[in-house]
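Homework help board

Subject: predicted structure for assignment chain

Our instructor gave us this sequence and asked us to write out the predicted structure in token form, then describe one feature. I got the tokens but I'm not sure how to describe them. Can anyone check?
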Amino acid sequence: MNYKYRNSELDTSSLQPKSGIRPERPGISGLGGWLILIQIGLWVTLVLLIADMSQVNVIMDPVRWEGVRGIDPELYTEGIRPLLWFGVISSVMLLLLVIVNLVLLHKKKRQFPRMMIILYIANVLIGVVTWIMIARIDIPREQHVLDPKSAFNLTIRSILTCCIFIPYFLKSVRVKNTFVK
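My token output:
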């Protein structure tokens, strides 16, 4: 079987863009395949970020760190509080990115793959900065409540996710056929 098309066999009129919509290429399209995992991941991330944001008042309370966990007030002010603020700000940014991506996904907008790549890269950058900030906090071993190892593992997982899904968004025929508006 010869799968190559000759110029005379290809109907180019169907490939012409109509009103800003990218022409569909031969192959599969729709929100199936690996895009199901992307959808599940976005919805789970949305729920987890909302849950995290609902706990901001509890997490940011100095009494929780100084009184209950016995952290020195100076250590909280110089090390932990900036880390917590970075976490809150990055969570808000990620929450907005996830909401935008869900809207773009379900409207099948052409910007969706680019925005997902931005989300993946933002996750890596936030993970690296968090890991560095935790590693720089000088907490005595008996008081250590922040583990740089878990932040490092999260960063490695984010990098692996980038290595898998960024090429998928760049090369997938399904992605190119689905997000055309």
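Reply (TA_rk): Your tokens look well-formed. For the description, you could write something like this. The CA atoms of residues 109 and 177 lie 11 Å apart. That's the kind of observation they're looking for.
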